Protein: LacI family transcriptional regulator
Amino acid sequence: MPNTPRPPRRVTIPDVARHAGVGQATAARVLGGYGSSSAATRERVLAAAAELGYSTNAVARSMISGRTHTLGVVVADVENAYFARAVRGVTDVAAKAGLQVVLANSDEKGDTEKSAVQMFIERRVDGLVVAPAAADHEHLDKAVAAGIPVVLLDRALSGATLDTVVVDNRGAAEAAVSRFTEAGHTRIAVVTSASPDENATQLAPGADIWTTTERLTGYRRALRAAGIPRGAELIRHTGYDRTWARSAVLELMSSPDRPTALFTTDNVATLGALDALLDLGARIPGDVSVIGFDDAEWATLVRPRLSVVSQPVQELGGLAADILVRRINGSTARPRRHTLRATYVSRESTGPVPERVRPLRFPGETDGPASTDVGGRDGTPADTPRHR
Amino acid sequence: MPNTPRPPRRVTIPDVARHAGVGQATAARVLGGYGSSSAATRERVLAAAAELGYSTNAVARSMISGRTHTLGVVVADVENAYFARAVRGVTDVAAKAGLQVVLANSDEKGDTEKSAVQMFIERRVDGLVVAPAAADHEHLDKAVAAGIPVVLLDRALSGATLDTVVVDNRGAAEAAVSRFTEAGHTRIAVVTSASPDENATQLAPGADIWTTTERLTGYRRALRAAGIPRGAELIRHTGYDRTWARSAVLELMSSPDRPTALFTTDNVATLGALDALLDLGARIPGDVSVIGFDDAEWATLVRPRLSVVSQPVQELGGLAADILVRRINGSTARPRRHTLRATYVSRESTGPVPERVRPLRFPGETDGPASTDVGGRDGTPADTPRHR
DNA sequence: GTGCGGTTTGATAACGTTACCAACGAGCCA
DNA sequence: TGGCTCGTTGGTAACGTTATCAAACCGCAC
Structure:
């Protein structure tokens, strides 16, 4: 690194002590708020400190105390509303406990996550919240071995004995899809943002994003419970891009026996799916019933308002931070999984099976990875937000 | 703090040195990657380090180097999509420069911001990005005096000689509203999320959120340029809550000479306004033309797609981080304001002045701070996101 | 065998705080 | 007066790294 000038020398405890005419240790006790000191000296020291403009050096303090009063947080992407909320939840609880939060984005890349965790270990954070993207947990175990408690957020990791804070993804998905089956739907499609690992039935957590797998399992269960045969499963895996989900839905809806109900397992998929349905002029729920995962701020903006599975995202983050605070304070309870409830929020996007299949207005092209402009709009967002 | 056990002792350089049979200084040079050392000893030390599981103590390093490789970021609320994006922009550039980001939310409270900045000073962050909520800048000057460069994000602060990264709010707002006037609109309303400081014409930055004031000024200019009299200004200040904006729009639209065009100066206002218009069954742009500020992910989801003023939010954050990196590396350039361009994105929510005033379907109540349920929906989001 | 550049090496002193401990004085009781 | 306790005080040793500097070493020319 060329030319990195050191910051200017700052006022230290010895300076204040000299100026106050007391010993270093005394000044240190007053300024550090520990030990005992007489009211008189306390006043003298404080006055000297104010006069000189002293401010504690937290680095030096951390050096000796071994505590940095810092939490490391690794999420896929703060820009994603889900993680933003979770981070907020962590930050609020952390702040109350006098901890600050260092943020790192993994972009779903295991290597990025690992190097972030490594940095956090070196920085001696007091605790770590991770929404794991990496399939293994060696790096996390290393952190634990180094005395840093780790809490997994949003996703579990098989084989790891770590505190984990998740929602009942499987149950929530099953409950949601059951609404469809109870209303008589049999052609129920699901659109999910994940890599297309088709044999995810195996439920190999860590092999893919855990939540997705769980939600798919819930979907499958609901179908099975309704006596719908395996062959009737309509699953579309799309990448972490809204336009992919859009294409997937356009393709699904162009089928002669198109689905009458649609379940999307994350924000991005929901966004793309709705985009497609609206362009097709599909009536919701007249032509298709829709349930999305996660209660985005726009879920109540679209008409009809979207029925969703709502997660207590902020609480999830808060709980994670809470567990860390407890562990930092010495709790040695056995790590366990905390499963919060995700609730189904009924709005207006679900209804009975349509009596007949109404033709939709298809634009020129109907499928393929690249979406075609439907015309009329000359502005599209420059950046497409990532998954969930 | 009761019962806060210290973390376990970790492997240090002396440990590695002993194990490798070399002097501390030598081991330190190898592990720290500075000074010179023979290939043989380097190998020995590295092997010993690996064997013992040594990892650098960044705190100790910071202690002596005076650098923490950390950036402090204070925004109003990460949960807000705008700030989330900005933070992402900061984080990305910071990461490339080997810096980590510590996050703090001010919730638009000056005191919260100040204590966060104070903590950052004590922690000896290398730089500070602040979206100021406090009207004064004493605390920021203190940071600068302590050798910590500060960059203001999103909002300027009068009288502060600090690097500032903003968009041309006034110009962008004026350009947007001009679309309305050019199309012949004369009854143009603006809904803004800010405290109702009516004489904001004075342009006292810091007295309120700067961006809002600027955008209102742009609105006023556009009206004036079109020869629309002062008295025809239709400004509604609402709190940082979507339902407030909704009520404001319901009230606006219930007027006999209701507006034919609507400009919202932030995300939350846009969300509330659209909610109201949709409930009223208002045709967009048939009955009202709408332009919003900030290109939210749902702007292209609603039909018609929403025309907006789009800010390069991520670049804003990136630029802020970039400036900091430069200053950390010794740049002493005079602090200046960097104004990025916000662009108008034309979609389908704007049109000509309607020929006649079509009656709207009003629900029972039309105004008042508390919004009434329009019925039919049994689920509303538990949390209403905050401003912008 | 001696002298001389250069690299490599290792003691030791920072950095600014807290932890530890011995010393001091006041107050009290025997 | 001696002895004890207790609040207060200040010197000094940590913490784990980097910075400094002198000593040791090497090869090579004289």
